[in-house]
Amino acid sequence: MTGTIDYAGAGPLTRIDTIHDPALADLPSEAVEICRLVHDLVIQPTEAKGLGVPDERFAENQLRPVDGLIGVLLALDPAPLTVARDVDRRVIGTCRHFAVLSCALLRYRGIAARVRCGFATYFQPGQGVDHWITEYRHGGRWVRIDSEILGGSLAAKPEDLAEGEFLTGGEAWTAFRDGHIDAAQFGVYGTENWGPAEIRGNAIKDLAALNKVEMLPWDEWGRMTASYEGKTGPDYDELIDAIAAVCAADDPGAVADLYASEDLAVPTGLLR
């Protein structure tokens, strides 16, 4: 076994030790308040487009490392991150960017945190929509929080999501294999990307995130592309079964060992 995973420490994409200290001054020590800050630091591409944000800024959506996201924020407005940004001065990103920025700031404060990749059931009735959230350790359990919707009414308590409001990729896969969900209702909103392949992909991305490697939603590696193209078979589904079981058991050593396999580890070239 590989051992433990220190979720209170930064990973390759959540390091922010290069950020000038004043930008991180006076960060709250309470997890929900940290995530509440992030709610006012990121803006979705669709909203940014509606505001007429210049086209050249949409490349921000492709940034993986958090220090790059914070760099954009500080270039737009040098104020500390505790200062809410006007909507046109927020970094452009997806739900993944809300989640990974929250995770990085929580870890900076020494709070054990991790990003989860899966599906939210509170956006569209009867559907699981591709989504990323953050978990932090509190009171002997992992609390699931969605920084993107904090302060809204999509979920009763977005600061502590209820069971079933968010399914990780592995949880959705197990539910599909057990006949509890229709995989055709799980996928990426606004696209034709729905079905088992989307669940497989998110299960692998969630495994990577549990290893502190939080990729972009559209990143592909290993046999993911073949799966999306319908070119994988039962052996690949059995691998996803193993991922789902290991992630559900939440044994850090087993999580790290499984991720280390050639088919599942993120190629070094993507970690930038």
From TrEMBL:
Endpoints of the signal sequence: none
InterPro entries (alphabetical): Papain-like_cys_pep_sf, Transglutaminase-like
UniProt name for this protein: Transglutaminase-like domain-containing protein
Residue ranges of every copy of the Transglutaminase-like domain listed in the record: 93-146
Cross-referenced Gene3D superfamilies: 3.10.620.30
Species assigned in the record: Micromonospora tulbaghiae
